[in-house]
Design a protein that fits this description.
- By secondary structure, the protein is an alpha/beta fold.
- The protein has one domain: Rossmann fold.
- A five-stranded parallel β-sheet has the order 2-1-3-4-5, sandwiched between helices. It has a two-stranded antiparallel ribbon with strand order 6-7.
- The longest helix has 23 residues.
- The relative contact order is 0.14.
Length: about 140
């Protein structure tokens, strides 16, 4: 089963159709929705959306509690300050809506790779307990 992405169109009206098509062409299963429909939508592994300016921290944590594992903040007019603000508010990743197609796909793949690594580490009980080299160069668990 392919990983499902959910793209919220609100605030991304110009970019959302293009983003969805690029990601579908790359083999992703992409659903689109509106913010009003989001509460009734089945959660997806990755949620891509423009996070509201008003109380972004509450928005991020509410979405995490609703079952969205990865919240990717999408911006149509990116800036370093906005990126920092949204990551500090609880977004797991940040992308520009108008990235070149190949870069958009690559960045979504990064999120999915990290998600798979975290899930595997959690399932195997190794999260935070990766082997560390000791003075002799052998791996030891800490």
């Amino acid at each position: 089963m392919k990983t499902e992405l959910l793209l919220v169109r609100d605030g991304l009206e110009g970019a959302a159709p293009w983003m969805a098509q690029v990601l579908r062409d790359a083999g992703f299963n992409v659903r689109t929705t509106t913010g009003a429909e989001l509460a009734d939508a089945a959660p997806a592994e990755v949620l891509l959306l423009r996070i509201p300016d008003r109380n972004p921290t509450a928005a991020c944590w509410t979405l995490h509690r609703q079952g969205y594992r990865w919240i990717v903040a999408v911006s149509g007019s990116p800036s370093s300050q906005e990126c920092i603000r949204l990551l500090n508010a609880g977004a797991d990743y940040y992308i520009d809506a108008w990235l070149p197609a190949a870069e958009l796909v690559a960045r979504v793949r990064v999120v999915l790779r990290f998600s798979a690594w975290l899930a595997q580490s959690y399932d195997h009980g190794t999260l935070g307990h990766q082997p560390m080299p000791n003075a002799a160069g052998r791996r030891t668990h800490q």
